[in-house]
Write a structure and sequence with these properties.
By secondary structure, the chain is an alpha/beta fold. The protein has one domain: TIM Barrel (Alpha-Beta Barrel), CATH 3.20.20.70. It contains eleven helices and eight strands. An eight-stranded parallel beta barrel has the order 1-2-3-4-5-6-7-8, surrounded by six helices. Strand 7 (188-192), helix 10 (198-206) and strand 8 form a beta-alpha-beta unit. The chain is globular, with a radius of gyration of 17 Å. The chain starts with a helix and ends in an 8-residue tail after the last helix. Mean pLDDT is 94; it is low at 1-8 and 225-230.
Length: 230
């Protein structure tokens, strides 16, 4: 019965619906962005996740797409005011979802109130728009991850996200299980970083992730899996 459930619910179309089709490398060209957007339209991914630089261009050329962009990316150590301006600019250019990076120095310094204030401020600006909070699990202790689950929940953010894809490691099943145990009922989970196979994608979705961040979804699901996931 479990295998039958996989074959029905986890078909490729279902998986694509949960993918933020991603291109965040520093050298991303307009040609590459166009390819990403065409793939997102063809395969009906949840969104495209792109650098802020391309938000306005994509909104004009591909109005049907849900555009996700990043804030404080990839290191997170911008000031709250800088992140707010960055977010507001992308919002005005019609981005619809936002993946922000927390200030990891604040985590290490136990400045937890500052982190919660930052997330709360950004969510207030967005209103009903989606805010995903990247906590970069590879740099955190279990105690810190648990604390971030609490903070993300209390701040009103929509998602907790494992990784930027630029750290020393990406998503792990252990972190997803920890998130499930400690986040509030209104917080969803996004796994990102190191998603390399269809089996990875199915496993994370089956474990309760609502979104997957990867640059390789199309390569993985069409069988041309020659690159690592974002």
């Amino acid at each position: 019965m479990q295998n039958l459930w996989y074959s029905i619910a986890m078909n490729d179309a279902y998986i694509y619906k949960h993918v933020d089709h991603t291109l965040l490398i520093a050298t991303a060209s307009q040609v590459e962005i166009d390819k990403l957007c065409r793939e997102a339209i063809e395969y009906k991914t949840a969104s495209v996740c792109v650098p802020p630089h391309y938000v306005k261009y994509i909104r004009t050329k591909y109005p049907e797409l849900v555009i996700c962009t990043v804030v404080g990316f990839p290191l997170g150590y911008h000031s709250i005011s800088t992140k707010a301006v960055e977010l507001q600019t992308a919002l005005e250019e019609s981005a619809e979802e936002f993946d922000m990076v927390i200030n990891l120095a604040d985590v290490k310094n136990k400045e937890f109130e500052t982190i919660q204030t930052e997330i709360t401020v950004l969510k207030h600006i967005l209103g009903t728009r989606i805010l995903k909070v990247i906590i970069e699990t590879c740099y955190l202790t279990e105690e810190e991850k648990i604390k971030m689950c609490e903070i993300v929940t209390n701040s009103g953010a929509d998602y907790i996200k494992t990784s930027t894809g630029f750290g020393t490691a990406g998503a792990t099943m252990a972190d997803i299980e920890l998130f499930k145990k400690y986040i509030g009922e209104n917080v969803k989970i996004k796994a990102a970083g190191g998603i390399k196979t269809r089996e990875d994608m199915v496993e994370y979705l089956n474990a309760g992730c609502d979104r997957l961040g990867t640059s390789s979804a199309v390569k993985i699901l069409t069988g041309d899996n020659k690159t690592n996931g974002y």
